[in-house]
Amino acid sequence: MTKTDILNAKERVKGATTLDEALLAEAADAARGVFPTLPAMPLSVPDKVEAVLHLIDIALPNWSIQLTGKATEPDGHWRCSLRETRGSDEIEIVGLGTGQVVSLALLEALLDVALQKIQR
Fold this sequence. Notes:
Layout: H1 3-15, H2 21-32, H3 48-59, E1 63-68, E2 78-84, E3 94-99, H4 102-118
Antiparallel strand pairs: 1-2, 2-3
Helix pairs in contact: 1-2, 1-4, 2-4, 3-4
């Protein structure tokens, strides 16, 4: 996968209102170019949040996930940041994502990290 594949997947995630299996598989395939240990996504994924957290755990072990949002809103406004867990505030890469549902915010943040890593 190329930078263009990651950018395309990130734009599709950013424009989505829900995360379906096809979009999850596309994003995982794009990120696999940077994180080759990511598994292929199964055809049926009952819990999308759990699936994206699993991808993050494999791609970015020991990174911190910060998730904020308001669950009371009908089309939530979730924000996610992924950052390396270190003792220093000088973090080189921070992945950022937003979405109407938690899974989209998490997935966009993962793709943001992948994009930054491929540009290095």
